[in-house]
Amino acid sequence: MRINKAVATVGAVAALFAGSTLAATTASAQPDFHAQSVASGLSDAQATSLQKRVDKVLAGHAGGRQVSPTEVRYDGLNVKVSPTGTFSEAALNCGYGHLCMTVNGTNFDFYKCQRWNVHNWTGDGPFINNQTPGTVAKFYNKDGSVRWTSTAYQSGRATWDPIWSLQPCGA
Q1: Quick check: pTM over 0.85?
Q2: Domains of the chain, residue spans
Q3: pLDDT at residue 120 above 90?
Q4: Are the C-beta atoms of residues 50 and 12 closer than 8 Å to each other?
Q5: Beta carbons of 103 and 77 less than 8 angstroms apart
Q6: What are the tens digits of pLDDT across the range 57-82?
Q7: pLDDT in tens, 29-58
């Protein structure tokens, strides 16, 4: 009994040590996006502001991974946050098969057919529905009713204030 207890204790201590070492290694492996932003020419204040906006995207949509100072990737969605807080209309680049829009200085590029809940979308901005011809994207109100639709190919401007969710390829 004593031997089993001693073995269990040693095993638990080893697992705890391995876990803390792994956590420390993972934390140190995380790129310093703030330093990268400053190295690219942003001031310290601009780099801090940029990271706060990226953190807001990550908090609003679970499952994302920051891959650069300005980009977050999800399974089915890429998000690019403007370093300065605004994108020009020309900055919205939308690959074939994608639904893209700019909301509050952030470009959203959806390429997976599923219902996406969106948070803190206000104002208006450009959109491009560059999915296969005839594919209908649906934009929903808070109560789940359809607010408006877009049939590919279509581009234009939209008001985001009432949009609570969207489905790039609504049925």
Answers
A1: no
A2: 1-30, 33-167
A3: no
A4: no
A5: no
A6: 999 888 999 999 999 999 999 999 99
A7: 568 998 899 888 899 999 999 999 999 999
